[in-house]
Amino acid sequence: MSLFFKVKLKRGHFWKDKEGKKISLKEFKDRFKQGVEGITPLQTLKTQILGTRIILLGLFLGLIVSIYGWKNLWWVAIILIGALINTGIQYLGLVQQKKRLEYIEKQFEEPEEKIKEKEKEEKKKC
Question: What is the reported pTM?
Fold first, then answer.
């Protein structure tokens, strides 16, 4: 999917693609839809893992701040500990899913490589 730049004109808005060509709103929506439909499950998981890491970092930092002000914020620390545990388990599940998908993709790639090797061997024999 190309990157788009929104440019404001006196009459309205239009988008430019990478090559600088003007495209209409409808064409922009169509290209955006095609790009979103092309996202693989592995790409989705990688994005979810990154987002979960950011959430874990925020929870951890919030826990440190709430422990620092324990006298007034003890109840926040309890909530953050529960959220940290829950999000940590979610993170582990996402990592396991990623490993399974990578294994499955590897299994699909290996037969293709073997077929290509056999074709090369047959060409050499001829």
Answer: 0.65
Write out the residue range of the structural domain in which residue 31 sits: 5-37
d(CA 34, CA 96): 28
Residue 24 contacts residue 12 (beta carbons within 8 Å): no
Q: What confidence category does residue 27 fall into, taking pLDDT thresholds of 50, 70 and 90?
A: confident
Cross-sheet strand order for the sheet of 22-23: 5-8, 13-16, 22-23
Q: What are phi and psi of 119, to 5 degrees?
A: -65, -40
Q: Are residues 23 and 50 in the same domain?
A: no
